[in-house]
From TrEMBL:
GO MF annotations, alphabetized: mRNA 3'-UTR AU-rich region binding; NADPH binding; quinone reductase (NADPH) activity; zinc ion binding
Stretches assigned to the Enoyl reductase (ER) domain: 11-321
Pfam families on file: ADH_N, ADH_zinc_N
Keywords, in A-Z order: NADP, Oxidoreductase
The name this protein goes by in its record: NADPH2:quinone reductase
Organism: Falsiroseomonas stagni DSM 19981
Length: 323
């Protein structure tokens, strides 16, 4: 038996339906994974609402999970039945008790890492990793700004950036989240975006910032640009408040700035890159430099409640859905 959360039409959390679905058999190059935990990420909201389009409806959403390989298709050599694995990749389909997925998208999970932690860390952790080490190579002594610093990616990014020797300014929405951000290493925490550029100017002694990491989107975009030094980089990697629409001429007006909209899918499209980013994540977690906090869990069948909490900004750290 197999159950999944499926979306028959785009819309609010109520559009997600828990229903029985066939248990697929792995084709050549695929593995059948029995999920132990499923990661909750804001990209799931985008697919639910239709901001990002599913290949077809009805669709099972979800990008990240951990579990055990039950069977493999012809030609699969990198994993075998019984292996503990995790993934954070397209195609969508993680909100299910079991699914098939291309085996080359799976990575083996070290025994020291639990299934809940693995499901909570892959997408958010590898995202933090590639943003800090490839999209913009953060250097010791630099000061950076992280929006949504008490969220899943934000908490990981703050810890990882500190490990790299950076000074971190975290921007959060509440005083409670400010305390959480400080507890995870943020050097300075700002609540709300009102007056943020002036506060950054004060913190940096007028130098402003070489880079801003912004997952909020529309509501923070212009403010983030105003925090950058000339030639600074705006890394816009999420749309929690809505998609960004802007005239690129603003980049010239504000100091010949750089703008990028990176995705984990691009940075892990090659098998060797996926393995490298996963290994880097496992390494910083094993060293204790980055601690993965699973602060909320919901039954997979109650995914709608998890989405309501996520969209209301009531979650902190990572959230998992349990089949």
């Amino acid at each position: 038996m197999n159950h999944a959360i499926r979306v028959h039409e785009y819309g609010g959390p109520e559009k997600m339906v828990w229903e029985e679905v066939p248990l697929p058999a792995p084709k050549a190059g695929e593995a059948l994974v029995r999920h132990k935990a499923v990661g909750l990420n804001y990209i799931d909201v985008y697919f639910r609402t239709g901001l990002y389009k599913a290949p077809a409806l009805p669709a099972t959403i979800g990008m990240e999970a951990s579990g055990i390989v039950e069977a493999v298709g012809e030609g699969v050599t990198n994993v075998a039945p019984g292996d503990r694995v995790a993934y954070a990749t397209a195609p969508i389909g993680a909100y299910a008790e079991a699914r098939t997925i291309k085996a080359d998208r799976l990575v083996k999970v070290p025994e020291a890492i639990g299934f809940d932690q693995a499901a909570a860390m892959m997408l958010q952790g590898m995202t933090a990793g590639f943003l800090l080490t490839r999209t913009y190579k953060v250097q010791p002594g630099q000061t950076i700004l992280v929006h949504a610093a008490a969220g899943g990616v934000g908490l990981i990014m703050t810890q990882w950036a500190k490990h790299l020797g950076a000074t971190v300014i975290g921007c959060v929405s509440t005083e409670e989240k400010a305390e959480l951000s400080k507890a995870h290493g943020a050097d300075h925490v700002v609540v709300g975006i009102e007056g943020l550029p002036a506060k950054v100017k004060e913190i940096t002694g007028g130098a402003m910032l070489p880079v801003v990491f912004d997952s909020v989107g529309r509501d923070t975009f212009t403010t983030s640009l105003d925090c950058l030094a000339p030639y600074g980089m705006m890394v816009s990697y999420g749309n929690a408040s809505g998609p960004v629409t802007t005239d690129i001429g603003i980049l010239a007006a504000k100091g010949s700035l750089y703008l990028t909209r990176p995705t984990l899918a691009t940075y892990t499209s090659k098998r060797e890159d996926l393995e490298a980013h996963a290994a880097a994540l496992f390494d910083v977690v094993a060293k204790g430099a980055v601690k993965i906090r699973v602060n909320q869990s919901f039954a997979l069948k109650d995914a709608a409640d998890a989405h309501r909490a996520l969209e209301a900004r009531k979650t902190t750290g990572s959230t998992v859905l349990l089949p």
